[in-house]
Amino acid sequence: MKFFLDTASLEEIAEAASWGALAGVTTNPTLYARIGGKLADFEDHIKKICQLVKGPVSAEVTASDTEGMVAQGRDLAKLANNVVVKVPMTLEGLAATRSLADEGIEVNMTLVFTVPQAILAARAGARYVSPFVGRFDDISEDGLDHLASIVAALNNYDMRDEGPNGQQVEVIAASIRNPNHVTQAALIGADIATVPFDILKKCAKHPLTTNGLAAFEADWEKVKQQ
Ligand code: G3P
Question: Looking at the predicted structure, is the pLDDT value of residue 166 above 70?
Fold first, then answer.
């Protein structure tokens, strides 16, 4: 499983990239608003993110009609070679995904919750589908169960491998709220987890690691004094 960072913060992306395991970034309008992003700066901001990370950077369209999404998607794709156009899971979004995919523009279909939505996204040519885990948990459903169903269903039709028609889709476990979501997404076989900065930091930590290191350091002091 690859790690993407789910943020629009340049500082967080730069720091996470320095840890050596970052494969991409996902943004959305909420994440851009959260860092105080201005409309006029949006395209420059996406360009800056694309320079900080080599892998795919998802930038989301905000139009709700197909034509508008396709036009925005084309503009976003011109910003950098590693831009992936994020499109919401609507009928208009499916149509936009087909148009953009046919033009060779990679799409990450977002706000995916169910198996039919994920299959439709894949069939419409999405390069990535993003099932949201935490938002199911928020309404007392098990988001990981839904993620597992989506991965299993796409596997049934070889849609996660290069299929006979060249179709290929990667599953991005999104709306990740804790390290256990990451653990379970990996066991389920999601291709990618897009993780908020604080959760990614938590993923690298464990009390036994901290305690073990403290013991090594204390014992090394004894060695130095012998
Ligand atoms: O990338 C979008 C998704 O990860 C959003 O997560 O926490 O707003 O449900 P959240």
Answer: no
